[in-house]
Amino acid sequence: MSAAGLEHLFALAPLSQYQLHLFKDFASFKTALSQTPFFSVIYSLSDAREERRNCLISLRELAYSHSEIQRIILAADDAEARLIGQLSPSRLHGIISKSASLAELQNQLATLLSETGSVNNNEFVHWHGSHCRMLSPTERAILRYLAAGFSIPEIAEQLARNIKTVRAHKYNAMIKLGVNSDVGLLDAADILGHLPMREPQLRAAS
To answer: Which residues contact 159 (CB under 8 A, 6 or more apart)?
Structure first.
């Protein structure tokens, strides 16, 4: 979503009560953060792999340094929203697909912004209306090995599993991530390979 699109979105009720600040990158936001007490960050994404990875890393950093600030991602479409939901190393307050109608986007954002002060444990309810199936530790391990260039037989050897089992886990990961090709799976594996193994411990908001 463009800057003009976001400005239009926040110019209309029920979002017009909020003051919107736009930043071209996370570094610019961090500079402003030292002077302005923001209560929510809305990161608008395209479906570019590098941008998605940078978003997840940046919001993880924000979760460590300013856990009281709400973290919302506007994903390009349902597929990207699913990837974000599965791969984010830190908890998010909301993931919203920009493929929703204007009215739905406004209502979902208004709902999330009214929930500042605590992480919403049902964050995925605001996207798709149901919880997504999370990747298992084995599925995540397989993706990390794929990102490192390991073949299926090599992964089976590393995990002390047979090849059929590894292929089954790989297939399950593809289903959960909503990808239908090895290229899509490698995209997700590459992102996961650049993210930490564990999520940060969030501080309670004061």
So the answer is: 138, 141, 142, 145, 166
pTM (two decimals): 0.77
The residue type found at 91 is R
CATH class, domain 137-193, is: mainly alpha
Domain regions of the chain by residue span:
3-126, 137-193
* CATH 3.20.20.450 given to domain 3-126: no
Residue 8 has a CB neighbour count (10 Å cut-off) of 12
Per-residue CA distances from 24 to 2, 5, 31, 45, 114 (Å): 10, 14, 12, 12, 25
pLDDT per residue as tens digits for the range 103-137 = 888 988 998 898 865 554 444 444 443 344 578 88
